[in-house]
Amino acid sequence: MSSIFLETIKAVDGEILNISYHQERYESVLKKFNIKHSQNLKELLTPPKIGTYRCRLTYDLSKEPHTFNVTYHKYEKREIETLRLVYNDNIEYSLKSACRDELDALYKLRGGCDDVLIVKNSLITDTTIANIAFFDSKRWVTPKSPLLIGTTRERLLREGKIFQESIYVSDLKNFSKVALMNAMIDFDIITKNIKEIFC
Fold first, then answer.
1. pLDDT digits (tens, 9 = 90+) for 95-133
2. CB distance 141 to 167 below 8 Å
3. Alpha helices per DSSP H over 14-171
4. Whether the Cβ atoms of residue 183 and residue 151 lie closer than 8 Å to each other
5. Count of C-beta atoms within a 10 Å radius of residue 73
6. CB 126 within 8 A of CB 132
7. CB neighbourhood size of 18 (10 A)
8. What is the pLDDT of residue 2?
9. Which among 193, 111, 95, 113 is positioned nearest to 150, based on CA atoms?
10. Where are the domains of the chain?
11. Mean pLDDT value across the chain
């Protein structure tokens, strides 16, 4: 496993959004490596004052103390309207590593679709860049076993806006809408009919 991990943090007109959830995830990674000393991520960020930016903060745990690198990227949304189901029972991405080789390899299998939806051990997990949720006519449900516990997913669960359940491929027919979630797009509902999303 790579020793470099990252957080992708949204900033709008200089305001850093939902930083407490990124701080919490960063500290959870440190805990897994028995590292007790953490930094305040907000103090490391000075995003541009105008515009929407993706703050890419990486930290290298191979060094003691660990070091940080921060870059700012003008945000341009990547439109995702179609997904191809791909199956991989061995993929592991429970920590937000800077090494995305496994995800990139699956992304190449998308064919004519915009992205892939990864199925692991028969369960729906994530796309390569986002957690996912499905509408069952009453509530939004997200997979109980995502590849990565995203910050937006965690926030919406705590706010009671989404709920988690085990979702199998055979369950997809029971849903009417699909939404993607990550720090940059927040909760983004795909406008297509669910039958047109999976290609």
1. 999 999 999 999 999 999 999 999 999 999 999 999 999
2. yes
3. 19-32, 41-44, 101-107, 151-158
4. yes
5. 10
6. yes
7. 15
8. 83
9. 95
10. 4-74, 83-197
11. 97
Beta carbons of 145 and 125 less than 8 angstroms apart: yes
Query: In sequence order, what are the beta bridge partners of 103?
Result: none
CB 106 within 8 A of CB 8: no
pLDDT at 1 over 80: no
Q: Which listed CATH number (3.40.50.300, 3.30.420.40, 3.20.10.10, 2.40.10.220) goes with 83-197?
A: 3.20.10.10
Sign for the pseudo-dihedral over CA of 92, 93, 95, 100? positive
In CATH, 4-74 is 3.30.470.10: yes
Percent above pLDDT 90 for the chain: 96
pTM to 2 decimal places? 0.95
The mean per-residue pLDDT over the stretch 162-191 comes to 97
Residue 73 token pair? 């990227």
What is the torsional sign of CA 162, 54, 102, 113? positive
Q: What is the pLDDT at residue 143? A: 98
Secondary structure class of 136 (helix, strand, coil): coil
Percentage of the chain surpassing pLDDT 70? Answer: 99
Cα separation, 95 vs 180, whole angstroms: 19
Q: Which amino acid is at 97?
A: S
* 188/165 Cα distance (integer angstroms): 20
H-helix or E-strand spanning residue 120: strand 115-120
